[in-house]
Design a protein that fits this description.
Helix content is about 95%, strand content about 0%. By secondary structure, it is mostly helical. It has one domain. The protein is rod-shaped. It starts with a helix and ends with a helix.
């Protein structure tokens, strides 16, 4: 039982030295995680925006081609 208690005390002292001995390390760690999460969200949002705009422009182009084909068919019908 004494060994477990000593091991717990050693871990507590190492943890305290780690946080107290290096000021600002924890803040930098959380800042880095926050930056990574925000950047990942922005990249994902940008990729989704690109995908949906591509689909929208493809549909718009198909509508323009159908309209041009209809106008050409009407001109051919009037000519004949």
């Amino acid at each position: 039982m004494a060994m477990i208690s000593q091991s717990i005390q050693d871990l507590k002292s190492k943890i305290q030295i780690g946080f107290v001995g290096k000021p600002g390390r924890l803040l930098r760690h959380y800042f880095l995680i926050s930056v990574i999460l925000v950047a990942g969200g922005l990249v994902a949002s940008g990729l989704l925006e690109i995908f949906f705009r591509y689909r929208e422009s493809k549909e718009h182009l198909a509508l323009l081609q159908q309209e041009a084909a209809a106008v050409a068919a009407l001109k051919i019908e009037r000519f004949i």
